[in-house]
Design a protein that fits this description.
The chain is built from one helix and no strands. By secondary structure, the protein is mostly helical. It has one domain. The longest helix has 30 residues. It is rod-shaped and about 45 Å long.
Length: 32
């Protein structure tokens, strides 16, 4: 169960973090 939970967290949290980083980069490019 814990292994499944870890995989689920990876599949949700990692893309979410990447998306936020991309959004930050995009905003920085637009502002500058």
């Amino acid at each position: 169960l814990s292994h499944y939970t870890i995989d689920l967290l990876k599949s949700i949290v990692l893309p979410n973090m990447l998306l936020k980083l991309l959004m930050l980069d995009w905003m920085r490019v637009v502002l500058i």
